[in-house]
Specification:
alpha/beta; seven-stranded mixed β-sheet; four-stranded mixed β-sheet; 12 helices
Length: 357
């Protein structure tokens, strides 16, 4: 089965090799070194300040999103959440559960976040923005320069869930004054699911000091204290930390821009070819990570099953209201251009078979 899904992804051979190894004991200098190097390499990939701190959590991305809300926000904040799909909605749910005051910038289905839309919220005393830079439900990649400028003008903290844009589109914490970045192992990094990482700017580290965190497991202060010696407070998903080390070395060796360029090539190659099919790609800024495809009719489920059972190709179904007439095809992971040629051929076959009826 070939995975054309956003996460987990089709993993690389070298990751699979690392995954085979025995899990060593972890309270050792050797493992500390791996963690410290991972944090340094991540900072490079995120273009973060030297003073940034990296928290490594054994949790899926949503766990990290919740941990960030618990550690970085409090009841005195006034949060603005960009809600352009199910992942945006998730940030709102988390704020609600933790009693953090928030408002939503709500986008209609496949509506682009424009300057006009955003600036309706300027000068209203917001303290922090929460955004999933690539809203993975719809495929929209928001304009980070627009968001960053808005936050600067309004003296807001900028918290970015970059889970499905990291290593797929260029990203710089420094250039865009991003205070917090959330990433996860199973998306652009193409590793096993299970760990998530949070990068905290110095400004956010200062702000966090006034917070009382009502959690034992998710208290970032504990993680930061332990990380000084390359350790985590609790048993981490040790194997994935080794996968991460292997992958970050490979990405940096290849060069981040070159690595991202390869993802972009796959996306462009697929987007060109898919135009031959009776489908639509939404007209908005998209991430290189994946292509959302819209159908005229409710055929998504049938097509997904055909590809999965007849062709051993797993594309990503879409969540929420869009689910019946949309699928998503990922460009992350160990896939070649010819894999996309095959996918398009198979989709053509499905349309030919089903148009005859
Ligand atoms: C995948 C993803 C997450 C995390 O989802 P989990 O299932 O908890 O790993 C969060 N935000 C975005 C934008 C994502 O694409």
């Amino acid at each position: 089965m070939k995975l054309f899904t956003v996460g987990p992804t089709e993993m690389y051979e070298s990751t699979l090799e690392v995954k085979k190894r025995k899990i060593p004991y972890f309270r050792t200098e050797e493992f500390s070194k791996i963690n410290i190097e991972n944090a340094e390499m991540l900072k490079k990939c995120l273009d973060a300040e030297k003073t940034a701190e990296i928290v490594m959590l054994t949790a899926s991305g949503t766990g990290a999103m919740e941990a960030v809300v618990m550690n970085c926000l409090n009841k005195k904040d006034k949060v603005l959440v960009i809600v352009g799909g199910t992942f945006g909605k998730r940030f709102s749910q988390i704020c609600k559960i933790h009693d953090i005051p928030y408002d939503e910038v709500v986008l209609e289905e496949n509506e682009e976040l424009t300057r006009d839309k955003l600036y309706k919220y300027t000068g209203k005393g917001y303290s922090t923005m929460l955004v999933n830079l690539h809203e993975t439900q719809t495929g929209q990649l928001y304009d980070i320069e627009l968001l960053s400028a808005f936050c600067k003008e309004n003296k807001m903290f900028l918290i970015v869930d970059a889970i499905s844009t990291f290593l797929c589109d260029s990203y710089s914490m420094k250039e865009n004054s991003i205070d917090v970045t959330i990433i996860s192992s199973q998306k652009g990094l193409c590793l096993s699911p299970g760990i998530s990482m949070v990068a905290l700017s110095e400004r956010m580290q200062e702000k966090m000091k006034e917070n009382i965190v009502h959690s034992l497991y998710f208290n970032f202060q504990e993680y930061n204290e332990n990380m000084k010696r390359g350790q985590t407070p609790f048993t981490p998903a040790i194997g994935i930390h080794y996968e991460l080390h292997d992958m970050l070395e490979k990405v940096l060796e290849c060069g981040i821009d070159t690595y991202i360029e390869k993802v972009a090539q796959r996306a462009n190659h697929f987007r060109k070819q898919v135009k031959e099919l009776p489908v639509k790609i939404p007209q908005m800024q998209l991430s290189n990570a994946m292509t959302p495809i819209l159908f005229q009719d409710d055929i998504a489920e049938h097509l997904v099953e055909f590809l999965r059972y007849e062709k051993e190709q797993m594309v990503n179904p879409t969540g929420g209201k869009l689910g019946k007439r949309s699928i998503r095809v990922s460009h992350i992971g160990n896939l070649d251009l010819c894999d996309y040629d095959e996918l398009v051929e198979n989709m053509k076959e499905w349309f030919a078979l089903n148009q005859k009826k």
